[in-house]
Design a protein that fits this description.
Layout lengths: L4 H22 L4 E7 L3 E8 L12 H12 L3 E5 L5 E8 L5
Antiparallel strand pairs: 1-2, 2-4, 3-4
C-alpha cells in the first residue's frame, strides 16, 4: 500500500496547514502528530494542547483548503475540541501497490 508522490504532497499540505493553524491560533505548547498505516487506510491525528475553539467556521481559506485536499484524496478530515486543545483527524483510503 502506498500513496503516489502527488498524493503524498497533498497530505503534506494538509498537515502543514494544520500545524500553521495550531501555531498561529492555539497558543499551544505541544503539537503531536501520529500516523497509523493500516491495510486499507491511513489515519493521521494532529493534536495540540492549546486553548481550543468554540466552533470551526469552515469559512477560512485554510480550513476550506484542508477539506478540499482531503476530498481529493478520497478521504475525510474532522476537527474535535476534546476539552482543551484541538484534535484533527484525517482518514485516507490507500490502494495496493501494483
Amino acid at each position: 500500500m502506498s500513496l503516489t508522490a502527488e498524493e503524498q504532497i497533498i497530505l503534506f499540505r494538509i498537515i502543514q496547514e494544520a500545524l500553521q493553524n495550531a501555531i498561529k491560533h492555539s497558543e499551544a505548547k505541544n503539537i503531536n502528530i501520529e500516523i497509523e498505516c493500516g491495510h486499507q487506510n491511513i489515519v493521521v491525528n494532529i493534536a495540540d494542547d492549546g486553548k481550543g475553539f468554540e466552533q470551526i467556521s469552515g469559512n477560512g481559506l485554510g480550513i476550506r483548503n484542508m477539506k478540499h485536499r482531503a476530498k481529493l484524496l478520497g478521504g475525510t478530515i474532522t476537527w474535535n475540541n476534546p476539552g482543551k486543545g484541538c484534535l484533527i483527524t484525517i482518514h485516507l483510503p490507500v490502494k495496493e501497490n501494483s
